[in-house]
Amino acid sequence: MPEYAYHAVDRQGRASDGTMFADDEKILERRLREVGYWLIDARVRQNKRARVRKKVPRRELIDFFNGITSLLIAGIPVAEAISAMAEETEHTGLKHILEDVSVNVQSGNEVSESFRKYPGVFTSQVCNLVRAGEQGGNLIETFTDISNHLAWVDRVMADVKQASIYPLMIIAAVAGLIALMFIVVVPKFAEIFAELDTPLPALTRTVIGIGEFAQQYWWAIGVGVVAFIVFVMNARHIDSGVALTIDRIKLNVPVFGRLQRLLVQSQFVHNLALMLRAGVPIVEALTLSQGLTNNLVMDNAIADAEAAVQRGDRVSSALREHSVISSLTLRMIVVGEDSGRLDTTLQQISDRYDEEIPRQIKRVFAVLEPMITMMLVAIVGLIAASIFLPMFSLVSGLSG
Prior knowledge:
Blueprint: E1 3-10, E2 15-21, H1 25-34, E3 37-44, H2 58-73, H3 78-88, H4 92-106, H5 111-115, H6 124-136, H7 139-196, H8 202-216, H9 218-238, H10 240-252, H11 256-278, H12 282-289, H13 296-311, H14 315-319, H15 327-339, H16 342-399
Antiparallel strand pairs: 1-2, 1-3
């Protein structure tokens, strides 16, 4: 069935652009007429990958799911509820998307399929949750769970950002100070020492050499730093082996490793509990959970768990082989499988992580701040020593 991109108007003359699946243009026109729109123009989409992938802030999506839940509880049909939320939102991109979704739902399409046309806004996880909610007749509960999940993600990201502001400012100040000293201060003293023609200690020669290199090749250093950052951020798309190595390092790096492990485990159990509670089958839920933790080590563990379930084994039997899963989490999963209430047990684990992660974030940055300060003192001390040592030698020589 082809997908049409259409331009239509309603009874008040307001224009609406969107997409809809239909056997032909006449059926498309009839379906639009049934929901109060007159077709002006339509064309078949040749490349489905070119669908709109507008970015919408997470906060806007939370407000949308909260609002539509309240409207559904009040007894308003889902298509009208989506249309009402489209009128309420101030985000232009989301407004256009919800208007299109509303038209599609009014014409007989499912909400999940209408959402699926906008993968940049409604992820495959959200679409499958909504589909399960539609099939189970508990769409209100599903929308509530999605809203709570997005709010949880928003809180975690906010905690990380808030805790990292001060250390990042310190790191930026340290980097700026070091660059200033090596590019400006050290070369000035190097000129003075050259004019005095005095023997220089090894530390001073090393610092001056670094300063001369930084002064001459500062642009290359800047390009190298930016290239390294870009490479690390895009490693997942460049080479899976490199990406796996980087993700493994993240889990084992001092100070940050424990926090990273807590985050990926929390994301895994939180997402899996959400989907199982919505009625998504366990194999499909495990498939959808891959990629949501943004860590290939955890993705490999989840993939093994999916394969185990397909063979008829337990989730815990596969996860037991992966060190990224803590012993406590594994024991709780075993309890959930034994009791037949895996979704409830996973939610209990998730609640525990919700309490632990903010405390761990504070611990990490409480340790990081003095470490950065000590590093600054050490670097500045070394540079200062390299400058003053020749001066002390010169003064001692003059005194002698």
